[in-house]
Amino acid sequence: MAARGLLLFGVLAVVLLLMPKARGNSEGDALHALRRSLTDPGNVLQSWDPNLVNPCTWFHITCNQDYRVTRVDLGNSNLSGHLVPELGKLEYLQYLELYKNNIQGEIPAELGELKSLISLDLYNNNISGEIPPCLGNLKSLIFLRLNDNKLRGPIPRTLAGISTLKVVDVSNNNLCGTIPSSGPFEHIPLNNFENNPLLEGPELQGLASYDKNCS
């Protein structure tokens, strides 16, 4: 019986050795950078320990069969702080769910490097600054929900080039200019743009500058 226990222990040790470690792993480093930037009164990030095995063992993280991070699920977690540019290193990330928190600061331009991203849900936070035009590089994006923040500036026209985009909600911000009417924006309901006092539209192609009313 003791020999069998030693054998099982040996197999487990080999498996853990073969799994990529969080320390020295770019994805683990990126997520740990996010943890350091956040205030977490509910300790929902307690398991995010870079000294443990790779981030696939952490709560609120989902990985694929190759141990690459595909989901970060931290919606409605009472978190505050800001996003970090290191998130752009999560090259297999499909879902970034950080809605209904108290996240502040700007959207890092590095999020435009997440080529596998399907859903970007940052709604109901206190995010400020402009929507980065480089989000137009997210050619797999289907859901973009940035409503109920403090975003300003125009809606980047680069977003109109995302053919997969089905849902865009930027209501309840401080955006300016005109509402796009081309590409996927042809099918986005106008109430998904409401409560932006300086936002007009939908635009008539060629008849109004997209950054109208933007100072």
Structural description of this entry:
The chain is an alpha/beta fold and 215 residues long. The protein is built from two helices and twelve strands, in the order ααββββββββββββ. It has helices spanning 2-18, 26-37, and strands spanning 38-39, 61-63, 69-73, 80-82, 95-97, 102-104, 119-121, 143-145, 152-153, 167-169, 174-178, 198-200. The strands form three sheets. Strands 2-3-5-7-8-10 form a six-stranded mixed β-sheet, with no helix packed on it. A three-stranded mixed β-sheet has the order 1-4-6. A three-stranded parallel β-sheet has the order 9-11-12, with no helix packed on it. A hairpin with a 5-residue loop joins β2 (61-63) and β3 (69-73). The longest helix is centred in the first third of the chain and has 17 residues, at 2-18. The chain is globular, with a radius of gyration of 20 Å. Residues 5-24 have low confidence and may be disordered.
Tell me about the largest β-sheet: 6 strands, mixed
* pLDDT averaged residue by residue: 88
* Rg (C-alpha, Å): 20 Å
Assembly of the depicted chains: single chain
Helix share, percent: 10-25%
Individual helix count: 2
| Low-confidence sequence ranges | 5-24
Shape verdict = globular
SSE order: HHEEEEEEEEEEEE
- The end-to-end distance, rounded to whole angstroms, is 76 Å
Percent of residues in beta strands?
15-25%
* Number of beta-strand segments: 12
